């Protein structure tokens, strides 16, 4: 019997820019190549919350998009906080990363309260931070992507960044070289790109964590992975590694 993994794509209508939907496609494709059956639930404002959730993926958006989702997002805040505390793996890019923090004060002076999963706050500035972004992470090695945000994010003391910006890009705020954040199994980051097709280690972390939480062990052979699927994954990883070396 196939082993299903339920993935929530969070607000894909309004929070999905610079290729962030590619993260959902990459997870779907990779899970299938490992022998599992991905089931994606697109969750927009007013939708029913799916019965079972193994992983949540959220993208970035314009300030206007963030304002559109904020009321519904707040109705889901307790649920999202408890799923995060329970260890559900989540990836939140840019605009949703900001809203997983404490608040986002936009450049026009409005304040959007976040849900406080991540101890961080964000303040918009006139000059946008745009361009390629590379960082080094203790857990995932070199990570590559692209950033475009007005918000400067500051982590509270003791909050673990995802990585350190060494060469290209601004990261959280352009001042302390931190980029992103990690809390429980939640990853917040400014990396668009899409992130996951180019950074397989992060995709595998999300997949492994989701599968282990639901089925106890991550065992592609037992899940029915074929040799051809294993070879296809290997080829995908080689291409991603080449992209990261450039
Ligand atoms: N609107 C937010 C900002 O400008 C997030 C942008 C994004 O998601 N790329 O900071």
UniProtKB/TrEMBL annotation:
Pfam families on file: GATase_3
Superkingdom: Bacteria
Keywords, ordered alphabetically: Cell shape, Cell wall biogenesis/degradation, Glutamine amidotransferase, Hydrolase, Ligase, Peptidoglycan synthesis
Domain CobB/CobQ-like glutamine amidotransferase, chain residue ranges per copy: 6-199
Active-site feature positions: 94, 192
Reactions the enzyme catalyzes: L-glutamine + H2O = L-glutamate + NH4(+); beta-D-GlcNAc-(1->4)-Mur2Ac(oyl-L-Ala-gamma-D-Glu-L-Lys-D-Ala-D-Ala)-di-trans,octa-cis-undecaprenyl diphosphate + L-glutamine + ATP + H2O = beta-D-GlcNAc-(1->4)-Mur2Ac(oyl-L-Ala-D-isoglutaminyl-L-Lys-D-Ala-D-Ala)-di-trans,octa-cis-undecaprenyl diphosphate + L-glutamate + ADP + phosphate + H(+)
EC number: 6.3.5.13, 3.5.1.2
Keyword Ligase among UniProt keywords: yes
Residues reported in the UniProt entry to bind substrate: 128
Biological or metabolic pathway of the protein: Cell wall biogenesis; peptidoglycan biosynthesis
Quaternary structure (record): Forms a heterodimer with MurT.
Assigned protein family: Belongs to the CobB/CobQ family. GatD subfamily.
Role description: The lipid II isoglutaminyl synthase complex catalyzes the formation of alpha-D-isoglutamine in the cell wall lipid II stem peptide. The GatD subunit catalyzes the hydrolysis of glutamine to glutamate and ammonia. The resulting ammonia molecule is channeled to the active site of MurT.
PANTHER family: DETHIOBIOTIN SYNTHETASE, LIPID II ISOGLUTAMINYL SYNTHASE (GLUTAMINE-HYDROLYZING) SUBUNIT GATD
Name of protein: Lipid II isoglutaminyl synthase (glutamine-hydrolyzing) subunit GatD
């Amino acid at each position: 019997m196939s082993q299903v993994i339920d993935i929530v794509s969070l607000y894909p209508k309004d929070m999905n820019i610079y290729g962030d939907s590619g993260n959902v496609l990459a997870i779907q494709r990779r899970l299938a190549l490992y022998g599992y059956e991905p089931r994606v639930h697109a969750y927009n404002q007013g939708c029913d919350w799916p019965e079972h959730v193994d992983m949540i993926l959220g993208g970035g958006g314009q300030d206007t998009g963030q304002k559109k989702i904020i009321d519904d997002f707040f109705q889901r805040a307790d649920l999202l906080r408890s799923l995060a505390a329970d260890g559900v793996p989540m990836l939140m890019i840019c605009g949703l990363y900001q809203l997983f923090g404490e608040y986002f004060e936009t450049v026009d002076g409005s304040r959007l309260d976040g849900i406080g999963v991540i101890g961080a706050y964000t303040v918009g500035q006139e000059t946008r931070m745009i361009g390629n972004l590379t960082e080094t992470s203790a857990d995932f090695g070199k990570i590559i992507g692209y950033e475009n945000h007005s918000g400067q994010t500051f982590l509270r003391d003791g909050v673990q960044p995802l990585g350190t910006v060494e060469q290209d890009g601004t990261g959280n705020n352009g001042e302390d070289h931190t980029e992103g954040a990690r809390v429980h199994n939640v990853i917040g980051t400014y990396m668009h790109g899409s992130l996951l097709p180019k950074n397989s280690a992060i995709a595998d972390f999300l997949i492994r964590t989701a599968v282990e939480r639901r089925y106890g062990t991550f065992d592609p052979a037992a899940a029915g992975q074929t040799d051809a699927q294993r070879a296809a994954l290997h080829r995908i990883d080689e291409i991603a590694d080449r992209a990261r070396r450039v």
